[in-house]
Amino acid sequence: VCMVCVCVVCVVLFAKVRLLDGGSFSETSSREEVQDHKVKWGAKFCFQCKMSANASTGVLDPCVLRVSVRKEVKGGRSFQKLGFCDLNLAEFAGSGQTMRRCLLEGYDTRHRQDNSML
């Protein structure tokens, strides 16, 4: 997992990865400092998720994985949510190793989002 086009510098970021559908997986990445407008966690997450298909159409039901990016504040005692990206794992079923980029979506609609990509 990595993030590019980060507009903030001299901050420590980490990611929380959790399944919204199909299981109860939740884990966080290591905390890494932004360097040259990017951060690379290099983390691999292994988990099982349950996928079901519509009986009449055979199309897989959504299985959403949320990657939430957070910034350390107060010396690591707290954090601020910067944004998230939702991935529908059903779109990747049977496709092997896949790479995908997505724009970070904001939690708060009152603040303008930057163009950071996961």
Automatic annotation (TrEMBL):
Residues 1-118 form the C2 NT-type domain. PROSITE patterns: C2_NT. Residues 1-22 form the signal peptide. It comes from the Eukaryota. It holds the Pfam family NT-C2. InterPro entries: EEIG1/2-like (IPR039931), NT-C2 (IPR019448). Keywords: Signal. Belongs to the EEIG family. This is C2 NT-type domain-containing protein.
